[in-house]
Please model this.
Amino acid sequence: MRLQEPGPDRAVLLRLLASATRVPDHGARVPFRFISLRGDARRVFGERLAARHRQADAEASEGAIAKDLDRYLHAPLIVVLVAELGPDPKIPEQERLMSAGCTGFALLQAAQAAGFGGCWLTGWAAYDRGVAAMLGLADHEHIIGFIHLGTPSQEIGERRRPDPAALLSEWVP
Model:
């Protein structure tokens, strides 16, 4: 909710994606793709998402439906990150999923380096096959994130991070 205009235009987005796609990709499968939502498409997507939520959960609260309607209006650009998975005779699905995930993180880093802010969100819509169908995804494709991009409206404080020393162990034979 702290991202505002301007967001990356198409030319800048393509430069950001060129950086974001320089990730580990065993077998050069390119197991990812992107869908952009900007302008009025964000509102229409929110309306369709709300309708899908009502269809999937007849007991969804009006607050949850209202949140769906506004969910994609807080940033000028939403990039839907799609992982292309499914059977592969050589490259395990987990490796392809991690490669796709790396593009999301790399996109956030590239956006920040270019002076934009970003936020990677999922929520129920990322896991709903009806939403995937609404976006035209094939059965072997999965939403792994909605990356919101724009210009920060205020300075965002750093959140607390874990102590790396507490995470590191050394294997000794």
